[in-house]
Amino acid sequence: MAKIDPAQFVREVRAETQRVTWPSRRETLITTGLVLALSVLAAVFFLVVDQLIQLAMSFVFGI
Question: pTM for the whole thing?
């Protein structure tokens, strides 16, 4: 069984975080904007579909 060395683990984590390619501020803002816009688009789509289903059910059942 491998011996657990917390100091070695911390060194490996630090070395790994230095290899990460972090996004720039501009890339982060663009990505955030896209996520928000697509979330709004999905919400509007499901609102419209829900209203259409409600209208169809009202027509079928006469409620």
Answer: 0.65
| pLDDT tens digits, one per residue of 36-61 | 999 999 999 999 999 999 999 999 99
Spatial separation of the C-alpha atoms in residues 37 and 27, rounded to whole Å: 15
Write the single-letter amino acid at 27: E
Cβ contact 57:63 at 8 Å: yes
- The domain of 34 spans 24-63
Please check whether residue 35 lies inside any domain of the structure. yes
DSSP codes joined into one string, 38-52:
HHHHHHHHHHHHHHH
